[in-house]
Write a structure and sequence with these properties.
With 327 residues, this protein is an alpha/beta fold. Helices cover 33% and strands 24% of the residues. It has one domain: P-loop containing nucleotide triphosphate hydrolases (Rossmann fold).
Length: 327
């Protein structure tokens, strides 16, 4: 398959009065055209900072470096603000995590949607912008789009706000969308509708999707490949079915076993992951998951594991390199 995006050794550090925060610390991955890659992990693992690094939406205190980045066949080096803005629009767009805080509360939906068309198609008339706004609202399944365009974000339900957020992200006709926790804070029925909508939009336009989530339940419904992230690093990557059938990293296994209905059937025991994600100011010396890992070996506490690649799977774990399975 043709790669749409590829990044090697992405590092995003933040300089703070307490020291250097290594939010993303040597991450490499690719996304094929028309594919959904899920980047999975707990809060604080660096998933959102990874996605913001791709589109250069970072604070001034951020120090962003990478060995190689390619978007749509073009190698990306040092970008000006204008070049980064062009990538954000046509190449990669983003559906932010919480529409109630991402949408501007003092502007109506039509104003916020219209801004995207003005920026990327400056020759459009006011009437054409309205027509396009109605069309994109219909496309994402918002009923009575003419009426919904005239309201403020707080006047929409959570599900409609999320659809409006998706409409804004698609208005520039991007070839790739980053969906950051697109179903968070939505009830189960609306979650299913949003997932179905993303799948339909992908089928219609062969769009690539980078799904940011902590929920393997959501991953199982939409992703084709999975990259599991912990403490600023990708610890395992592979095809969805392979990861579910036989997780190689203890963290991956515990994440899957914490979700009902995937590996744990009715009446079974859900696993919990003891402890918390380490402070990025002071990561453990060896494997960053070792302090929380039930299967940790002596070597795990002192030596960081090397990445092992087997076919289309990769993992960083001493257990696997020593030929031991996570039981």
């Amino acid at each position: 398959m043709e790669k749409y995006l590829e990044v090697k050794n992405l590092r995003t550090y933040f300089n703070t009065p307490e020291g250097v925060v290594k939010s993303v610390d040597g991450v490499s991955f690719h996304i094929n055209r028309g594919e959904t890659l899920a980047l999975v992990g707990e809060s604080g693992c660096g998933k959102t900072v990874t996605s913001l690094s791709l589109i250069r939406l970072l604070a001034d205190t951020a120090d962003l470096k990478y060995d190689y980045m390619m978007v749509d066949g073009q190698e990306i080096k040092d970008l000006t603000k204008e070049e980064a803005r062009q990538i954000r629009g046509k190449k990669i767009s983003m559906i932010f995590q919480e529409p109630m805080t991402s949408l501007n509360p003092v502007y109506k939906i039509e104003k916020q949607l219209g801004e995207v068309f003005k920026l990327h198609e400056p020759g459009l008339t006011k009437e054409q912008i309205h027509e396009k706004s109605v069309e994109i609202m219909k496309k994402v399944g918002i009923p009575n789009p003419d009426e919904r365009l005239k309201v403020y974000p707080h006047q929409l339900s959570g599900g409609l706000r999320q659809r409006a957020m998706i409409a804004i992200s698609l208005a520039s006709n991007p070839q790739m969308v980053i969906a950051d926790e697109p179903t968070t804070a939505l009830d189960v029925t609306i979650q299913a509708q949003i997932i179905d909508l993303l799948k339909q939009l992908q089928r219609d336009s062969n769009m690539s999707i980078l799904l940011i989530t902590h929920d393997f339940g959501v991953v199982s419904q939409i992703a084709s490949r999975v990259a599991v992230m912990y403490a600023g690093k990708i610890v395992e990557e592979g095809m969805l079915e392979d990861i579910f059938r036989d997780p190689w990293h203890p963290y991956t296994k515990l994440l899957i076993m914490s979700i009902p209905g995937i590996k744990v059937t009715r009446g079974g025991r859900l696993e919990s992951i003891k402890g918390t994600v380490p402070n990025p100011l002071n990561f453990p010396k060896g494997c960053r998951f070792a302090p929380r890992c039930p299967w940790a070996l002596d070597i795990c506490k002192d030596v960081a594991p090397e990445e092992m690649v087997v076919g289309n799977r990769r993992v960083s774990c001493h257990l696997r390199t020593q030929g031991k399975a996570v039981e």
